[in-house]
Amino acid sequence: NFQQTKSPHLVDSTPLHGEVYASQPINITINFNFDLDEGSDISVTSEDGEEWTEGEVKIEDNNTALQKDLKQGMPDGSYKVEYTACWPDGSCHEGSFSFEIDSSKRSEYEDMRGESEVTVKMKDLMFEQSRIIISPGTKVVWENEDNTSHFVNTETHPEHTYFPEQNSRELENGDSYEVVFDIQGQYNYHCSAHVP
Predict the structure, then answer these.
(1) pLDDT band for position 195 (50/70/90)?
(2) pTM (2 d.p.)
(3) Is the peptide bond before 164 cis (omega within 30 degrees of 0)?
């Protein structure tokens, strides 16, 4: 009888440690390579000590992803993420990382606020309009114009756990995929078939 065991290890997170966002994330997602259990939690504090998480912590993705929603209105600055990751046997370990919000980076994005629908073309192995700013409630449609298949996948790779609704099926030439973004925040994504 073979039983798989997972050594305790943090795989990655969204945002990643040290990453700078142009807008706040909608949640903190931390991926592990072991089964998580009760007692696991996430805290996010700004430099002034204010707590920015809200709601209950969620254990997702076959019990290997820890996720907690963030309050709206996070200002520019540094944020410390502290987490407790617990195993089914009740033992836990703690860790931390940080990320920043710098709204001046929005100048690197194309402002498409006010549009009810925005199309992003998948062409020449790239997303045309790779960085956009939209209003909450906007529908984004990705259209594959390449002769190779593509995917739309939320961060990070290969877990794709930050905003699972943004994960498409394989898109062949002429296929499209759409998502309505209701919550204001930054949604990083990539094509998992062509990750650099």
Answers:
(1) low
(2) 0.90
(3) no
What's the pLDDT score for residue 30? Answer: 97
CA angle 156, 39, 166 (to 5 degrees): 25
Mean pLDDT across the chain, nearest whole number?
A: 93
Determine whether 104 is exposed, middle or buried from the number of CB atoms within 10 Å of its CB (0-12, 13-18, 19+): exposed
Confidence of residue 190 (pLDDT cuts 50, 70, 90): very high
